[in-house]
Amino acid sequence: MRRDQSQLPIVTLPLFGSRVYVVFSVPIIQSIQKQHKLFAFQPIQAKFSTKLCGASKDAYKILRRHIHEENGEFGTIYGVMHHALCPGKFLDEMNFISSERVRSSIDGIRPGTNIKLGEWLRHHVTLATTDAVYGPHNPFREKEVENAFWAFDEAIPGLIFLPQCVSRQWVRNRKVVADAFRHYFLHGYHEYASALLKDFYQAECSYGFSLSDRSLFETGHAIATLDNTYTAVFWLIFYVFSSSSALQKIRHEVASIITASVGKVDGKRTARHVVDITKVNSHCPFLVSTFKETMRLHGIGISIRQVCKDTILDNTYCLKKGAMIIMPTISVHTDSRIWGPDALSFKYDRFFPDKATTTRGNKVSPAAFRSFGGGTTMCPGRHFATTQIMVWISILVMRYNIEPTSGSWNKPAAGKPNMANAIMRPDHDIEVNFNPRDYYSDGIWEVKVANPDEISISTTDSGVVGDRTVQWKLYASHESQGA
């Protein structure tokens, strides 16, 4: 790794015929993030998003028209997703729909059936996420669209760096997804979607993008929405269930946020388990630590900025206008000077409160954990993704013993990263068996992700969340849950 070779906080590399600065130092990364008008992501976003999505030249001109690098002004569209994804009513509504789909997927597990864990998670996380974003007319419910999307996703490097004549099949897969979104918008289905989707739609219409470009851009938005969550769940399941110590502690914690009762459903006495995800941070420190450690070891995201003006950074480093800045997460997350000599090892309690220290005994700076990036471009979907991940792991650890059919948890290699991934994908899948735990095998399960009175879901006359019909207003504490 270049960091280990040079031991320098920042280095200059010639790349793609231009100057690139690669930053390894957390303090310098923080300094760059604070000066978000001088070191901006938006110009890069405009260029690569149009290339990746196959949008028209007119679309790129529209994006560039609203970028004024010298003044540090980049247009409202670049921050439009933050409104709907920050903690509050709109995020709560998305979390509720997503958690309902997760619960339904776990309810549908057939004990004793061998399941390819990664493949199974990718399908069900895709539905949980896209149902929350796109509503009852979610295009990803069509298997052809889901398959085309993931084929398109895997081909991203080729779409960006190779001519279209070489990547025709990948372009066709992208078109399948974009055509589905075109149909979705033409029929007004976005009116029944999340605030996130509505905000994007309104912003893109106000900018003057054509229907074709809006449909192509939505294909790109889906990458940001879907690309990493299922992989995070995969690795978290691997680490939790492969460690009896971690599993025992986490089960004890999750049990403390479950309310159990017995009631009647269809005239029969039935156990009812309610998992309160809002208490995870306060009641489940080992689970939170295991999640963060999973993200630390498998995070491969790269924060990128463009230098908008010649700048002397920290009175030391001269950064030239037009150059690119790269801040690789993995270089920070594997730095033994930050995390100690065991930086490459998985320690599920590394982030346990008051435990994380450097080799000198000082606390690790929170800024050194960069799985969601940092600064003004920190992943706006981090709250949504984290809630869904916690729903998956909390229900699974309580309801099932998960065992690999091979007899042992052999960690897959992860040596084929896709540049769109912020989390390493395993090179091969793991076949597992779900065995129900006796005490939790019966009854109905519910998930609390917010104050029920804050959640209302508008649909058409009827829509589907999980396997249940949803009317004009639906509350998280609905008495018919699971019926």
UniProtKB/TrEMBL annotation:
One of its GO terms (molecular function) is oxidoreductase activity, acting on paired donors, with incorporation or reduction of molecular oxygen. Its cofactor is heme. Keywords: Heme, Iron, Metal-binding, Monooxygenase, Oxidoreductase. Heme binds at C379. Gene3D superfamilies: Cytochrome P450. Belongs to the cytochrome P450 family. PANTHER family: P450, PUTATIVE (EUROFUNG)-RELATED (PTHR47582). This is Cytochrome P450.
